[in-house]
Amino acid sequence: MKNHNKATNIQNQGKNALPSVANSDGISESQIRANISLARRIVVKVGTSTITHESGLINLLRLEHIVREISGIVNAGKEVAVVSSGAVGAGAPRLGLPPKPPTIFEKQAAAAVGQGVLVHMYEKLFAEYQRLVAQILITREDLDDRKRYLNVRTTLLYLLHKGVIPIINENDTVSADEIRFGDNDTLAALVAMLLEADVLVILTDTDGLYTADPRTNSEASFISFVGNTSRVTGRFQIADHHLTSHETLTGATLTSRRARELDFTLSSNTLYPLSSGAPGASEELTVNRSKGNAALKNNAPNIQNMLNIREASSGKRGTGGMRTKIAAAAICSSSGIPTVIANGATPHVLEDILTGKPRGTVFAPTATRISMKASWLASAAPRGRLVVDKGAEAAITEGGKSLLPSGLVAVSGRFTEGSVVSIVDLAGNELAKGMVNYPSSDLRRIVGLHTSQVEAVLGYKQSDEVVHRDNMVLTLRPTD
User: pTM score > 0.85 for this model?
Assistant: First the structure.
């Protein structure tokens, strides 16, 4: 019982998220950077290209500089969690494989070898500054399952509370390709959401976001600030008692099951009104799904070039490019967390960012932080689908109501009580995601029934609702 209370206290410890950091509407870049300097909980994502040489071997000098900076930040009373790439790159040459192994089996083997090498180096370097590290390997399933999600959160919060620096990576050795995060940028964003961090810092091999790839285009211009560029003002509402029923929010998390597919998930050739981040400014974005690109009217460079970044900017050793980093920033923005993309090779880069200096590209957060539970629902991969009729669709999307058995038309997939499912209309368009109160086998038996009939059919009644509105997040849809 004592341990349970300790876990509960860690879960609910009063971190007091900074409201000023989360309020970006009409706030300048300098103000957001100044607010970041007040951050107390930081997630730092370290890219493969930042801490490894071209050969895949670890760049000890670069890693030592980063470790020294993080140690200083923790010594100042702040909390830092590190999401580190580099395991596959570190393990591949030891197995005689190329820096990016061609098959999933070779990659998993390289990760198994390289993870030990990587964590050993972190442990050795942090020990020089009297700091402990903890290895945390996470799979997508860990964050999709509510209980495991909370267990991960409790463990991480306890480690941070003790001054330990978690070194987090995806468990590549056991992760199946279809349930992987896909890149550590996405993992870092989800960790930042899980920890309710004050800022996410992504260290990479460029100074930040450019209008083009600066390595191949000498005319590329640096972009120091990106406003609420991912905000699509559409029929998005969130069933959360902390927000109004018609609150418009931001983020690729709420747009796609795979958050890194930032501009591929929107409808083909559709106009969406977007905010450029400047007070009173509004632009229109045309998204072409088939071509995978976007064009902005009135030529607002920060938005246009952000969405037109190509995967060609991905390095030889890493799995992500600038697109995945932008998508990660959009995920964090949706939860009211600012993101900075900066060059990990720059001396004192973390110190500069956390003292408000103009280092890297800063991505503004939304004005409102959604709850941790809503963030989890938005990012979790659904285990099945519930097809609903027109009446249930209107009740959910327009009335903010729960889903009842009478509104069900069909159930697909196999899932248990408490699983996250996708709620779709008759055409298959996703309306919402939520936690179900019944397993799929029982839901199939009560499709279309009135609530009063459930107990007679199942022999029990867990709840009147199939999905309660408090356990539901509605999906972003274009304005009709």
Answer: no
